[in-house]
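Give me structure tokens for this 343-residue protein.
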Amino acid sequence: MVTNVLTSQSESSDILETVVEFPDNFLLIDLCGEYDRNLAEIEKKLGVQILRRGNQLAVIGEPEQAKEARDVLLALYQRLEEGRTVEHGDVDRELRMGAGGSAERIETEDAGGEDQLEMFKGGRVEIKTRKKPVEPRTDAQKAYVQALFANELAFGIGPAGTGKTYLAVAVGVSMFIEGHVDRIILSRPAVEAGEKLGYLPGDMKDKVDPYMQPLYDALNDFFPAKQVAKLIEEKRIEIAPLAFMRGRTLANAFVVLDEAQNATSMQMKMFLTRLGEGSRMVITGDRSQIDLPRGVTSGLHDAERLLSNIPKIAFNYFTSKDVVRHPLVAAIIEAYDADDPAK
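Here you go.
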């Protein structure tokens, strides 16, 4: 627990100095990060200076930025006191979303009859998986996760790197672990992204797995590798191309359709009508990366047009500001958007 916070501001200056005292030096070392890289990240993003004086950190800068930096430091230190780690993503999340916020609950109905699933503790939302907890890093991500728990059908639409698929799979894993669903079904259209891959060797699984690899990657982040293999063998986790969904009724399952911009209108209708009792469905896509043949309408576009006014179907949108990959990815997306004559 932080023991002391001192704030002073010169009458002749707009510069504010806030000194925060941290009682545990070992936690303070983790807070600062290797070579003080966490402090450097806060300094860079907020335009402040942070000086380390023994077990104290002095934050110097314009009043609003200095107070924000102080709140970020306090929130990160609280994580450490709770036995959690502070990684680059945690620093980034606090800088994007702020340290404040009151506790909230998400209302949900599940097959077990429970009527509430408590998601927010101390103002943050955390998705529990077998390997690690996952937390949204932007306000749009937070609203998206809330929509996934609150709605049986939800869309996540936006550019690459905004966590649409990653968070959807994390929520699916969480609901599977808690027993709200019996299966996780992940699907993608098997559409080549501009290049011809020819006849791939191997059996059907070998041919389609390259298209499905991002879904395997997400699962391996949330389950131990051996458990993923076992669950796939038991068909409690299925990863299959969109074309394989025809004729099925997907009951008591958490279903994700990724890269939905590459589904045709008929494929999208087919997939959406697979929704069965006790299931939840998430559709993710990026309208700027359509790989369908020229003249073929994207099913994601049609779904937006036809379903946006239907109650209990959530549409969540992301922008370049929600990109959580390398900072250059956001700049690249903005450059392409600025050059798009359709915008």
